[in-house]
From TrEMBL, chain B:
The active site is at residue 320. Belongs to the bacterial PQQ dehydrogenase family. GO terms for molecular function: calcium ion binding; oxidoreductase activity, acting on CH-OH group of donors; pyrroloquinoline quinone binding. Binds 1 Ca(2+) ion per subunit. Binds 1 PQQ group per subunit. GO terms for cellular component: membrane; outer membrane-bounded periplasmic space. Pfam families: PQQ. Residues 1-23 form the signal peptide. This is PQQ-dependent dehydrogenase (Methanol/ethanol family). Pyrroloquinoline quinone binds at residues 78, 132, 176. It comes from Rhodopseudomonas rhenobacensis. Ca(2+) binds at residues 194, 278, 320. Disulfide bonds join 126-127. Coiled coil: none annotated. Residues 37-391, 496-550 form the Pyrrolo-quinoline quinone repeat domain.
Length: 187, 601
């Protein structure tokens, strides 16, 4: 796999990857995120803050205990994924007949790129494909749960969580509830 | 060609009887010619039945591919072509190309139309970039593009005669449905129920594209075009503010009720029939009330738009059971009496037989025995809940409330049947119905509305009914008794529109890509052929040069391409994981193609 520098907002890099790039962007802000940044490190949680687990670089990650209990964010991400994302990206991050499997996408994509792509969308329109992802930066249902979605997809990406609804989950952390409320009240 | 325009709108039913040179006389005559296929549903009654009978139950096994055509477009191909004389009109999903092929000249492309549309409309389409076909009338081909542009093309040259914007894609309104031409008007609905659009049916002048009327699915009486005194529900006047009373505050303004399905027409009664979709959001707790007139069958005067009657099948939807499926019009004897019937196979798993003159409910029965959210419709005319489905508490996502995972609801949100239209044969008096056999877990939760963004508010998981390994059935249905006559199991949901013929053969496609022919009486499989991609299109027949042809669009996608592409459940997980649960990806891949069949010469 080839890596062309760092993908940052506005930089278009063409690599041998399924997403061909197009200078235009779904929102009017410039933004096609090229491929590829550094893949995230091992998802092993090394610490937690207010019920949210973090990997060694401080990226959000999942935590699943031996009895299968998942952290709150994995569970919440499961719910929000299947409300907001699944109509294009298929159940459980498995992909559809036209949109990529996000459980695989997050393997190669850094946390930062994930945030940028969801916030700004991306566009891949060629003679043979018409794939367009809208910008979700202003959609509070998505934006306020972006870590939840990322954590859920990371859990899916390693196979730590199967194609199931998580059977047991930790309670909702007070901090998460407060943050969600203040975020959803922005409108 | 007819040059006579109406100077005024005629008020009621007398219009057809009065005859005269009307633009739709041409269409009525044309649809009686079985050599052509001039209306997406075959005819105004939406029977998808052809009197052609060169291909019969005895010889269909010899069917061969006569010719094929690649549409050059990937993604989901719904609908089917129109055939008028020597011309065939083939449409595609986004970017919504239309090809005119000359059947007299080696199926050469006479003209091609390809609109320039902003690709940002793509992700606003909830369930792939499908389009269900074009309509013909007044020498024009009408196309409803993804971006809601309704365009009229000269049928001979493909030149744009006029175009008009039917909705606002930046707010989530999109075009997927096929228009219907009635007299001097072209009627078109709109999609966007997952985006909180206040949806509508609109009539435009076929000559100029000028809007003649627009009837919303929810809102004040003038917007929904209901007359409190004259519009009836189950025989009674509907009364004032029938929609507003059933919503909290201004919620009707983002209420959905989208009109993305099929439209039928009875020229004698001069009534047009169509259904409305789910109320937005999918979280029922956030929109108390019956949410009228979502999930409703409407009968309207096509000249004025005014509603004659309405019937809401799923008041206060809790499962996304859109009411947009086709209305099939038939004239049959019930208890020794001739009745003008309307038969509708709803997403909610109930098949309704109604008197289409007045909206009287005659039969409402489950057409998949696994349907469990309701114990049935109250048929007691004296009861205060007459005509309402009785909801089983266990499966009420409203009663169980937000953040509760309601397990094992059948059918799933995609319904026992989605838009894939059924066929009716007057020979057997049976309806041939492509169905989904899928259940779900449904968990509603609170969402906020953002214009142009998904407004869903529920988490869904879908799977075959417990104990079953197949996800679809193709059934024959008796609409008078409300009973299944025969049922063929299909591994995947049957997402293809059926065709019934006087040859005693019924055709449909499968998601793996098979075109299948079965015996109309018994359901016995007589022929199958695997086309280039999975089929979500509708089977069409026509005659050209003395031969009967069967045409089908392949091109997997649509909602089936989302839910089934990777398989509904993990084939490696749990007990009893067998072939039936497997991923559709193992059987077929994207690709738009038309395959045309005929008997060997």
């Amino acid at each position: 796999m080839m890596h062309f520098g760092l993908a940052a907002i506005g930089i278009v890099a063409c690599a041998g990857l399924a997403f061909a790039e197009d200078a235009a962007s779904p929102s009017n802000e410039a933004t096609t995120v090229g491929k590829v940044s550094t893949p995230p490190p091992e998802p092993t949680p090394i610490k937690s803050t207010d019920g949210k687990y973090l990997d060694k670089e401080g990226n959000p990650t999942f935590n699943i205990t031996a009895d299968g209990t998942v952290d709150w964010f994995t569970y919440s991400g499961f719910r929000h994924y299947h409300s907001e994302c699944h109509v294009c990206h298929g159940p459980y991050g498995e992909g559809s007949s036209y949109a990529p499997a996000l459980k695989d996408s997050v393997k190669d994509m850094s946390y930062g790129d994930f945030l940028t792509t969801v916030a700004n969308g991306r566009k891949n329109v060629t003679s043979s494909t018409e794939n367009v992802m809208p910008a979700f930066g202003h959609n509070l249902n998505v934006a306020c749960h972006i870590d939840d979605l990322y954590i859920y997809l990371r859990a899916r990406s390693t196979g730590a969580l199967g194609r199931v609804r998580p059977a047991n989950h930790e309670g909702k952390p007070v901090a998460a509830a407060l943050q969600e409320n203040s975020c959803m009240d922005q409108r | 060609m007819h040059k006579v325009l109406f100077a005024a709108c005629f008020s009621a039913a007398a219009v057809m009887a009065s005859g005269g040179a009307q633009a739709n006389d041409e269409l009525i005559k044309m649809q009686q010619n079985p050599k052509d296929w001039v209306i997406p549903a075959g005819n105004y009654a939406s029977t998808r039945y052809s009197t052609l009978k060169q291909i019969t139950a005895d010889n269909v096994a010899k069917l061969q591919v006569a010719w094929t055509f690649s549409t050059g477009v990937l993604r989901g191909h719904e609908g089917g072509p129109l055939i008028i004389g020597n011309m065939m009109y083939v449409h595609t999903p986004f970017p919504n190309k239309v090809y005119a092929l000359d059947l007299n000249d080696e199926n050469k492309i006479v003209w091609k139309y390809e609109p320039k549309q902003d690709p940002n409309v793509i992700p606003v389409m909830c369930c792939d970039t499908v389009n269900r076909g074009v309509a013909y009338g007044d020498g024009k081909i009408f196309l409803h593009q993804a971006d809601t542009t309704l365009v009229a093309l000269d049928a001979k040259t493909g030149k744009v005669a006029w175009s008009v914007q039917n909705g606002d894609p930046t707010k989530g309104g999109t075009g997927t449905s096929a228009p219907l031409v009635i007299k001097d008007k072209v009627l078109i609905g709109i999609s966007g129920g997952e985006f909180g659009v206040q949806c509508h049916m609109t009539a435009y002048d076929t000559k100029t594209g000028k809007q003649v009327w627009r009837a919303f699915s929810e809102g004040p009486d003038d917007q929904i075009m209901f007359d409190p005194e004259k519009t009836t529900v189950l025989g009674k006047p509907v009364g004032k503010d029938s929609s507003l009373k059933t919503w909290q505050g201004d919620q009707w303004k983002v209420g959905g009720g989208c009109t993305w399905g099929w439209t039928s027409y009875d020229p004698e009664l001069n009534l047009v029939y169509y259904g409305s979709g789910n109320p937005s959001t999918w979280n029922p707790k956030q929109r108390p009330g019956d949410n009228k007139w979502s999930m409703t069958i409407f009968a309207r005067d096509p000249d004025t738009g005014m509603a004659k009657w309405a019937y809401q099948m799923t008041p206060h939807d809790e499962w996304d059971y859109d009411g947009v499926n086709e209305m099939i019009l038939s004239d049959q004897q019930v208890n020794g009496q001739n009745r003008k019937l309307l038969t509708h196979f709803d997403r909610n798993g109930l098949a309704y037989t109604m008197d289409r003159t007045n909206g009287e409910l005659l039969v409402a029965e489950k057409y998949d025995p696994k349907v469990n959210w309701t114990s049935g419709v109250d048929m007691d005319k004296a009861s205060p809940t007459y005509g309402r489905p009785k909801v089983v508490d266990q499966y009420s996502t409203d009663k169980q409330g937000e953040d509760f995972n309601n397990k094992g609801i059948c059918p799933a949100a995609l319904g026992t049947k989605d838009q894939q239209p059924a066929a009716y044969s007057p020979d057997t008096q049976l309806f041939y119905v492509p169905t989904n056999h899928v259940c779900m877990d449904y968990e509603p939760f609170k969402v906020s509305y953002t214009a142009g963004q998904p407004y869903v508010g529920a988490t869904l998981s879908m799977y075959p009914p417990p104990g079953d390994t197949h996800m679809g059935n193709f059934i024959a249905w008796d609409n008078k008794t409300g009973k299944i006559v025969w049922s063929n199991k299909e591994q995947f949901s049957v997402w293809s529109g059926a065709l019934a013929t006087a040859g005693g053969v019924v055709f449909y496609g499968t998601l793996e890509g098979y075109l299948k022919a079965v015996d109309a009486k018994t359901g016995k499989e007589l022929y199958k052929f695997k086309t280039p991609s999975g089929i979500i299109g509708n089977v069409t027949t026509y005659e050209h040069g003395g031969r009967q042809y069967i045409a089908i669009l392949s091109g997997v996608g649509g909602w089936a391409g989302i839910g089934l592409a990777a398989g509904l459940t993990d084939p490696t997980a749990g007990l009893g994981a067998v072939g039936g649960y497997a991923s559709l990806n193992n059987y077929t891949a994207l690709g738009g193609a038309l395959t045309v069949f005929a008997l060997p010469q």
